[in-house]
Amino acid sequence: MKRILILTSALVASASVAQAQDKQVNLLSWGGAYGNSHVQAYAKPFEAKTGIKVTVADADNPATPLKAQVEAGNVTTDVASVEYADAVRLCDEGLLETIDPAILAPAPDGAAAADDFIEGAVTDCFVGTDVYSMILAYDDSKFIDAKPAGPADFFDTAKFPGKRTMRKGAKFNLEYALLADGVAPDKVYEVLGTPEGVDQAFAKLDTIKNNVIWWEAGAQPPQLLADGEVSMAFAFNGRIFDAAQKEGKPFKIVWDGQIYEMEGWVIPKGAPHLEAAKEFVTFSTSPEPQARAAEFISYGPPRKSAAALVGNVEGTEVAMGPNLPTFADNMDGALASNLDFWVDHDAELQERFNAWLAAN
To answer: What predicted TM-score, i.e. pTM, was given to this entire model?
Structure first.
């Protein structure tokens, strides 16, 4: 009888180990400072709390390999960080699992999670993790007298000489071109929704086309600034802030004309560890982890209750709040990226952008 009990205990222990090993989360992120915020604020604390291993892989834009995995029926990702418009498009194409808001952690005051997120941060297939923005950044050492102060200055190579760097794509650049051309933020998508408005945006881009180095990965703009290859960048605010704060680079951010959007988690159809993926989403979108993530990179948390929990920049005495896109003073002249517009027009405008870029 004793031998049977020992064998039974061994089998139970073996089964528990197998179950623990089977519970893991394969996370697809963006790398760099942003990816590090995911590791430090989400992955490591989640592992410590649950014992579930999180393996992190990086991509220039996780939406691209995620779509390929699902369509090929070879899904290795459990949770991915994607841009808002990509999440909606992938969801509409049936490539994502739905996420029940009921699994999300309530606010500290007991309010339902859905009521604690800013508008639009929770959809059928998406839960927001941060609010980021595309901003004008410049190397302060390159401009001694006049300093760039907004979109128009980015396009003014006579007053502010030097190469620029912009993301290689239509999104953000067309809006920024219209802002630089004098279109008010609240009229940008109305103008861009017309053939004449698209022509206007590309005409403005024409004025600096020969002075632009195009970037594809978020780590490139701060490196191009640091190497002196460009004097100004239109880039993710968090990447620029991270280089200035941690590496002491003389980079300045201009908030006027910022274009902000959300990123967040999605779970692909066929995720190999679905239940663990849901556990990870629940944990990482709780107020405390979201506030903690903002201390590693200057992207604002989309949970209202998380804002007051954000402390100093990690390892410093510098308050992070004023360096977030959502800080009140930084919202003057800001433009919210229009989700519906890009879901409807991304393919056609990207095709035109590619043709424009290839033309002499």
So the answer is: 0.79
